[in-house]
Amino acid sequence: xxxxxxxxxxxxxxxGIAALARAAVDAGLDVVVAAPAVQSSGASAAITAERxxxxxxxxxxxxxxxxxxxxxxxxxQPAHIVLAAVVGWLDPVPDLVLSGINHGANTGRVVLHxxxxxxxxxxxxxxxxxxxxSLDVALHPDGSGGRHWDSATALLPEVLALLADLPEGxxxxxNAPDRPPSECGPLRHAALAPFGAxxxxxxxxxxxxxxxxEVEGDGTPDPGTDTALLAAGHPTLTALSxxxxxxxxxxxxxxxxxxxxxxx
Length: 264
Known about the structure:
- The protein is of the alpha/beta class.
- It has one domain: Survival protein SurE-like phosphatase/nucleotidase (Stationary-phase Survival Protein Sure Homolog, Chain: A, 3-Layer(aba) Sandwich).
- The protein is 22% helix and 25% strand.
- Helix 2 packs parallel to helix 3.
- The mean pLDDT is 88.
């Protein structure tokens, strides 16, 4: 069986990670769950962690509905957990990283800030295939809202089969509408929107502070983007590129040389 690490940024107790891990088990994968001990949304690819005498605390836990599946609450950000898993913490090293299911869509170029996506991109940098999974839960002041996790998990076999045929290090981002699977449109490839479905704004500011607030995006999203297709009821799938050099800006031509001789 394929060895898979399931993580998230909403924390080990979040219902989304339990749903994703159960779906991975049902797909016949060899699952280990490891996620932040506390909410870590917005962590991006940070590898910060708590330290006790130079060591990162790890606590064995049980995930709801997954008796017998090894699971750990880690005092670290999700990308830190993935990094540890692929450089020696887990033996064997995971063949695949699943991150999510995030409570809220991860769309647009602002996926840069998502801990869910950051964990997947960290896997990709190390040559491990990864899938970030997010559910388009509407924002409500009290945190309520429908949670049709099955609209995401129902797509897992199809997406995993696709990912298995792609090169090592491939990172995909899956967003699912928060509605029953029968009410979702077909899975669509999507480009990243300039901004996400949820946007951050300064709510108040003074000389000694500011306050940020997350709000639903306004305006009409660009056709064909993940934000537009998701709003129309389509699950979306986008391939993301881990960090790499950008040769397109022509910096080597401006500075002279291509860096292969170690001299200028």
